[in-house]
Amino acid sequence: MTALPAFLHPDHHAALIESLSDPVSLKHLKRFRMDFSKDPTQISDSQADWLFAQGFLPEKTDLYDFGAYDPALYLSDIQRWLTREINGAYSIVFNNKVLFTQVFRNFCKVAPVNAIWRNGRVISYDGVWEQCVAGALTQPRKFVIKPLGGGGGGNVYFVTVDAKRAVIESNEKGREQFTLPVARLGDIFKTAHVPFMVNEFIYQGAYSQALYPRTVNTVRMLVVRDPETLQPHVVRTVQRMGTASSYPIDNFTLGGLSAEIDVETGVLGPAVAAAGPHKGPKWDFHPNTGEPITGLVVPNWPDVIRKMKSLFLQIPYIAYCGFDLILMDDDVVVLEGNSYSQVRLFQMHRPLLSDPVYVKVLKHYGIYVPETLNGDRDEN
Amino acid sequence: MTLFLPKGTRPPGLHPAAPRVIYKTVRKNLSHESRIGRIDRSETLNEFHAFSEDFHARRPRLDPEYAGPLHNRGFLPDKGVLFDLDSPGRADQYLSDLQARILPLVNGTRQAALRNRLLFWRLHRASVAMAELVGSVQGGRLVLSGEAGLPGPFLTRPALTSDATSPSCHADLSGIDRDGPERIILRLPQWQAGQRLLRVAVIHDPGTGLPVILGATVIALTDTLGSWQVDGAGATLRVAQIDPDTGLCGPYGAMIRGSLSPTPPTEPDPAPPVANWWALRIALTGALARIPLLGVAQFDILETADSGIVLDVTDRLDTASLQRHGPLMGSDAAIRFLKEFGL
Predict the structure, then answer these.
(1) pLDDT (tens digit, 9 = 90+) per residue, B221-252?
(2) What are the two backbone dihedrals, phi and then psi, of residue B50, each rounded to the nearest 5 degrees?
(3) Selected residue of B52, B54, B97 to mutate for chain A interface (largest A Cβ count, 10 A)
(4) How far does A35 lie from chain B, in Å, by closest CA?
(5) If you average pLDDT over each of A241-255, B158-172, B244-258, which comes out highest?
(6) CB pairs under 8 A between A and B
(7) pLDDT tens sequence across A160-207
(8) Is B49's CB within 8 Å of A33's CB?
(9) In contact, A168 and A198? CB cutoff 8 Å
């Protein structure tokens, strides 16, 4: 087992839970305990007691390597929920995708918003939706329609529209692929219960396309602000890849793959899956296409890192973000930001708390408690 | 007497300090799941976490298929079988274990009297027909408030309702252990074979401002001293539901506290009706109407030939014995109460 670094206290998980007392933190703990209770992973009584006390969901016994890495090195599930509070009031910039686009388009390339669907009607931003419905397109266009808020994939629709009809592919059960006459384009939303956003489809570069051609394969980059230096720090990056089971998206929760990208070199490690038929092994080659994964180098990687750090510096009120990036041949599109990024896709490779700057950030926001259970303070 | 108050009028009997809203409740949605989702204040969140820790400490552990729905509705593991909560929609009619923890908050600043038996007895023995308080055990000593040579039997129970130590019965004072936590000593009437305990849950009806019996059960006691172990873990009880309007009883049904085993079937014949139920009911509700005390309370009453003797009062309703034969929270008064206090 990897030894615990000196800056980490071995009992910090239990100490954190004992320390929670404000309503916001207790609500997150409530959410954790409710998720814990319905987690279907079969575990022993002693495992259940330990996981409950440390703040990990039972599924983590399957997903994390507690045998190879000290559990204290992992960000727990309750800690992950608490990261939701790091950005404070500015979290809304990430939680609302339209607001995210409107703010970030001033600083980087984003996917333009064409329209919003809300309460039974489409609100067009640029007139393109009306052109589609009127059959006035002179050439086909492609859009992505997804929920305005929240993460975890949800129902996502890829829509290719020409002058007469629209072909829609989605991950919605029962509506995986269907066509509509353009005049009835709004029928896409007939099962919708939440607001949706219509974005211009972004065509990924050759490197990303080769990973799995049937999906847009995004990079998730976790960036934090060092509370002492105020400088951006890239904690971890992964390359997500779609699979036949996650199609038409690359979402990790829905069966996609995640391969760690070395922050310094841009070299990919093997890929893993958290769900679906590819869960279990480490994949050096894509299980559906056979294309190599391990050892691939992300083109222009130093430029990608530099651009994302520069972006972070231009938005001083943000301290924590998991950015979703589409890598084009010569540029980066920032698809969205996640203010409390899911961390399984990182930690299935290596635990996050091996990074001392990341631990410093967590400590600054009260998410890492360097105390023993009897109250002795660890000065690290 | 006015039975119904104009809309918006605060009932006169309700203590002004009783909180109006415990947590936000959407009035059209009284499901347990949505209630728990809206718990957002420190004191109710702390109760949730105490409940959750209790749930997850229980053994044997439930399979997640059953644990999730029970925990996330606020029921401890044994209630799934005891209340037969598999049927859709059934759970929402029952008072959950989490609700039983939170309900005492409606008593506001009066919680102190309901959580300290010594205080309650001293404050209200003139108003409510309670067993005689003859003294207490404090600091290793027997502190008597009256004559030393009174005949028993005597019942001792912890002074604080938060102390889960079971009560004990003694033929005389010499048998009472001087060590341990602070306890009150009550003098019981002479024991009779087949004596029964009535457990009565009372709420203040927000519509009328008057105390209302939410539910009542009768618990059969064994015929020997020391039969007071009705609330300890693993205790076996034989309970029957009392019709609050008539005092007639349904059949007895057995239950084992905390057990995950199938609930035994109810007996074929109805239990004997409560002697002088109306006299008891009038005495109890009449006394409570004069005390600006309550949002909710549970009384344990020894059934006697006249109107019964109160042996215990607590603000924590016993969801198991009170609901062994059916849910508590389906009546109009209960629903008004839940809506009024945002529970």
Answers:
(1) 875 555 566 777 778 889 999 999 999 999 99
(2) -65, -40
(3) B52
(4) 8
(5) B244-258
(6) 60
(7) 999 999 999 998 888 889 999 999 999 999 888 889 999 999 999 999
(8) yes
(9) no
